[in-house]
Amino acid sequence: MKRSLVLTVVASLLLVSLSTTAQGAAAPSLSAASPFDAAVDQLLSQQYPQSVVNTINSYGDSAIGFRMAGAPADDAAANYIAAQFTGLGASSVRKEPVPVDEWALKGASVTVAGRTMTASQFPGVPGTNGALMAPIVYVGPGRADDYADVDVTGKLVLVDIEFDDYWFNMTGEEAKRRGAVGVVFTNGANTAPAHADPNGLASDESRWSRTGLPAVFVTTNDGNWLKKRLATNGAVPASVTSKVSVTMHNFANPSSGGVGYNVVAEIPGTDPNAKAIVVSAHHDAYFRGGLDDTAGVAQLLTIAKAMKMSGTQLKRPVIFMATTGEEFGYTDTQYDYLAGAWWAATKSHSSSASDPAQRWTGSDGRIALVINIEDSPQQDSPLIASATSDLAPWFASVAGSSGDLLQGGYYPSQPFTLWQDGATWAAAGVPTVVTVAEDASYEGINHTDRDTSGLIDYAYLGRLAKFYVRTMTSASTALLPHDINGQADELTASVSAADLKAVGANTQAVDALVAAVSKYKAATAAYADRRSSISPARWTAVNDQLTSLERYWYTHLSGFDAGDSSLVFPFQQTLSDIGHLEAAIGLLQGGAANADAAVQELAQVGLTSVGLQFSPDVYTAELKRYLPDYYLRNWGGQVNQFWHVDITDKVRQIEAGDFTGAINGLQCVVANAVGGVNVRGAQTTSVHIDGLDERLRAMTAALNTMTPMVDNLK
């Protein structure tokens, strides 16, 4: 997916020594001489993983690749993967349809002054319907102020990507608002470290509007050549061609619209009643996707084939899932990625599935945990894992005793990332581990045509296959490894009565939450004390109870941060926003000298820093997509999201010197953020957004439900 875990590792990231065992269960007894390991070695000697990668990477909808969900190349990959699972002897092999916006990217180019430059394309962005000919002008990063002295009516615009500041659709909508007819993206001075190769092509999920302009991307060197020519000559004639074939999804009647396919296969466990483990990777890709994620699919198939060759059978069933639409599945939404996993977690394998065996999530869900394999393995790189908090100590424990396999080391990444398929599984209530094996250089390679099979370390791929089976064996032994006491510690550390009351939260609501957290923590501590004494005869029942407990935790205590980057508690982003709002109010009350500092505080509220860079109607359209009644929220609708409030008008008041008006307006925003607010919806006249107090009360109710569940773990 888009951002590697290297980018989401926070200051608490520490290297786990592989000479010691971290807190949790010891590594299981799959020795280096195990039949499974021998089978992996045999497959490596036969170059089986290489054959998988080479075959899948041979599928592309254009000369430079692309396997977008439901497009011919991705369907070919799904067919091949299903045939491989069938051939190796897996059970219940099937292709499961997923309604998607099929976006077949068939090639693009930009021609200026007789020079034709190969361009890359973006899923979700319309094509040109032949050659689009118009003058082209350079508008820098393409923000509102960049158009101050430029008339782009009827013109193409050359735009520098500002990858970490805002998304592609914002610049596309700004260009459309200004009258442009198309966008040519390239890299700018601030794009680094992304897109490192100056001759490399790039792409990404764009969050584009269904009615947006055509857009393509040219390399840094081609972009620089264009900029020099435009600096000398001003606007020059250009021709852009982007060949795209589109079939939109139809949720009501999926077979009549665009359809991609998740590929599912199973290896039964020795205990048919045990909760299953899902191991997943995605088969769609930008360009060829060597590490992201063709090599991940090769790991799935290598693990499954080696298990069947060696007769390896765990207590728990193992479900292999190669998903579609992880990179892109839908246009006109903030949540245009993770489509296949979202559909599986919330539709085809939800509690509404007619076949009980296919109910993976929900109150009677069949799966215990998910291991999602991404971006791996790059030579000499560490294994990096972003695990939900209940699984992190256990996974670190297995990694810590697996130095023979993880020779590049192991890093835990916290908080849990939302950039991979694991996000939708966690939000559906399934504890999840997302892994990558990459180094810092991959940040400049991801989602470019430089992500090729040449990056893959196949010997390391084999070691990782052995490690994942070692990990799954550990999770199949005795009680499930959920560290609910450590999870409670994380919650306890996050709930500060002083901080909540300082921003005006209801005193009774705060005190009730603190009491509920304390009771829950006491219950989990008692469970931790008695865990080792629970009778083996009770393990199956307790494991089922643990699964239900974790499912309740993640479906009731999960939220997203402002950038949709990390899993947080439902109140945390709201609390952060109120803190910045009140800090700004205090600064403004101190006088005009504090105006700049106040604006800096306000820029940290939600997506305000983005809104300040674009025209008001462009930002308004962006925020509309987060509303509860927006028609295409997808996995973003799995959590109770915070209020994406627009305060850019208050910033404009400050800039105009109207401090009193700004203070009054901001105080009103704070009151609504604390108490809750009704706002105009995307499709209805009014929708309610929970305030801080409501979020605290909901968390209290959830904890009061979960505490007896913990007490019954015995």
TrEMBL record:
One Pfam family per UniProt: PA
InterPro entries, alphabetized: CPQ (IPR039866), PA_dom_sf (IPR046450), PA_domain (IPR003137), Peptidase_M28 (IPR007484)
Gene3D superfamilies with a match to the protein in the record: 3.50.30.30, Zn peptidases
Secretion signal span: 1-22
GO molecular function: carboxypeptidase activity; metal ion binding; metallodipeptidase activity
Metal-binding among keywords: yes
Keyword Protease tagged: yes
Compartment annotation: Endoplasmic reticulum; Golgi apparatus; Lysosome; Secreted
Keyword terms of this UniProt record: Carboxypeptidase, Endoplasmic reticulum, Glycoprotein, Golgi apparatus, Hydrolase, Lysosome, Metal-binding, Metalloprotease, Protease, Secreted, Signal, Zinc, Zymogen
An annotated GO BP: proteolysis
Subunit composition and interactions: Homodimer. The monomeric form is inactive while the homodimer is active.
Protein known as: Carboxypeptidase Q
Species classification: Bacteria, Bacillati, Actinomycetota, Actinomycetes, Kitasatosporales
